[in-house]
Amino acid sequence: MNLRKIIVAAVGAAGLLTGAVCGGVAVADPSGAPTYRQLAGVGSDTTQGVMNGLSNVVTINGTKVLGSYDAVGSANITTKDPATTPGCTIARPNGSGAGRTALSTSLAANNGCLDFSRSSSLNLAAAQPGLTYVPFAVDAVTYAITPTSAVPRKLGLADLKAIYHCDPNYVGTGPNYSLTVYLPQAGSGTRSFWESTVGISDADVVAGVYPCIKDHTKDGAIVEEHDGRVLDDNSIAPFSIAQYIAQSSQTIADLRGRAILGTIDGLSPTALNSNFGVKRDVYNVIPTSKIATAPWSTVFVGKSSLICQQTDVINTYGFAANPNCGDTSQQTP
């Protein structure tokens, strides 16, 4: 399939960027009593909404125990009561990678500031202390474009791989590529998942091996993943289907702009489909040493864990139930 002629022909008609000006995402850090929770977590933008929702319904003896802090918002967050656990004001981690790093840093310091992290990708690189990735839901990822995009609404995975490899038959030639190919911000779990899906490495992206690829920015400012307002008629970006569903239902802030989701290999992205080819588990990362220790074991571990019992909440945020919810087999060496 040759997209180049289609895209070049559409450039003149597309004109200026039609998406809304990018803005900040509303912060939804722990609300209600208690202000500070037994289990404080940070990380993934993709799962922050559903974890915020779960934090309002998961209780032990009637008390909320999950404190989930958004990926963006104030520069710093305070995760534990300064009167009992001082020193827990930290820079807000943005994304799965930053969340994992912050958790590891807290565990290594044994300061009690963080107890879990959110992750939309699996990373079993060595960690000390060891970490366990506990799946709790299923997401899928497709590509987002505008309704009047030069990019077709139906593509095969092979086409997407060609686009993200900057094949000139699909994106034109530099330095002024006809198609702007976006990736989410550095450290994003969706970024690493999508890179794996289309067969590229982040190291090569950073080194400029694929010069048509741009970080998800507008006017020099970073735009969070799953924010369709950066798109124009000659751009493409990965987008979480769960996020799109939750945004469209106003369950979380609607940042779609004019974005619509594309179909991959003939499978519709309008609802999570167990047959959708580009799907992923999403995780809460906990210290391996705490698997059998409450409240980690009560909240996260096993099919009967408090999170795994909340299928309706998980579905409300656009995610599918995970048949392996609560599994603890994915551990870092």
Can you give keywords for this protein?
single chain, 333 residues, alpha/beta, D-Maltodextrin-Binding Protein, domain 2, eleven-stranded mixed sheet, 24% helix, disordered N terminus
What does this structure look like?
By secondary structure, this protein is α/β, with parallel strands linked by helices. It has two domains: 4-21 and 139-264, D-Maltodextrin-Binding Protein, domain 2 (3-Layer(aba) Sandwich); 39-137 and 283-331, 3-Layer(aba) Sandwich (D-Maltodextrin-Binding Protein, domain 2), CATH 3.40.190. It is built from ten helices and 19 strands. The chain has helices at 4-14, 48-55, 96-109, 157-164, 168-171, 189-198, 202-206, 241-248, 296-300, 311-316; strands spanning 39-43, 59-60, 63-64, 66-68, 76-78, 89-91, 116-119, 131-145, 154-155, 180-183, 213-215, 217-218, 221-222, 235-240, 260-261, 263-264, 279-287, 320-321, 330-331. Strands 1, 4, 7, 8, 10, 11, 14, 15, 17, 18 and 19 form an eleven-stranded mixed sheet that branches. The model is unreliable at 1-27 (pLDDT under 50).
